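G., the chain you wanted modeled:
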Amino acid sequence: MKVAPVLEAVRATEKFNSILVHTGQHYDANMSDVFFSDLDMPKPNRFLGIGSGSHAEQTAKVMIEMEKLLGEIKPDLVMVAGDVNSTLATALVAAKAGIRLGHIESGLRSFDRSMPEEINRIVADEFSQFCFVTESSGLKNLENEGISADRVFFVGNTMIDSVQKYLPKARERFPELAERYGIEAKSYALVTLHRPSNVDEREALTRFMELFERMSAFAPRILFPVHPRTLKRMEEFGLNARLQENLRLTLIDPVGYLDFLALQDHAAVVLTDSGGIQEETTALGVPCITLRENTERPITVEEGTNDLVGLDMGRALEYSERALGGTWKSHGIPKLWDGHAAQRIVSILEAAL
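Predicted structure as tokens:
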């Protein structure tokens, strides 16, 4: 969602030749291949096939393979996006090879270094010659970290470029999704959970299951596309049988980008621990309840539809009932979230390279 608009804009110019590299860090077909199809992305030029593993294993594998690849290709610029292990690994290799680096979604900070993603963001920004910032907090964060202003570019959010481009197509899918899952527009809650702090401990995950049970008193349907990591933990903790007794909670397999965008767009409320979903719900004007103590995307709280509740299940329950009842705080669309971030990025690169 972050890369597709930039790749399209790059390939629309005559100045650049581009090579798309898929590291294979996200290897599940429902969480990778279908996104390429939904976003009209071409088949990657190179696939590294990294697969699963610990943070150290994934980072090391990407570094080894990326070092070989960059040595072969010798690019003028490497672009990375977001805050995953592939972002960190590629940034390190490019920096050591003396290759210029661009970071899409630069400057976001949760100020929680227990999150692996926070480390990845900081390192990628430190080595980037082009820090492409999505929101105003990123400008302040980079300034505070001593990143020189000539490396920082406020361009907007390429995630929102994808939302705006594909929302009409996603909306066409909703009638079939509604029939498949037994839902009606603006009458259901949509849930995602995957962060280790929320799903790897029995106590935390059980707390969320209790929340969904209590929400069933007023929510006609709770739709839960289950991340593989979360499903594995639910099975380990013996929570599956308990969930099956909740007739208003529907567990489904992960879905592709267009289907999930349609489900977000028509939900009464989204409960999540995902960063990107906080942005997408703000762009869609859909109430979002973030089940984390912090967010690296504060603009979604300050101006958007997002509210943080942490692990306070009482607040989560209260806010969910409010949203399902059609009441939510006033909100707007953040500056430069207008569908043209990718074009700004490419214009900057054209002028600089």
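Residues 158-181 form the longest helix (24 residues).

Shout if anything looks off.
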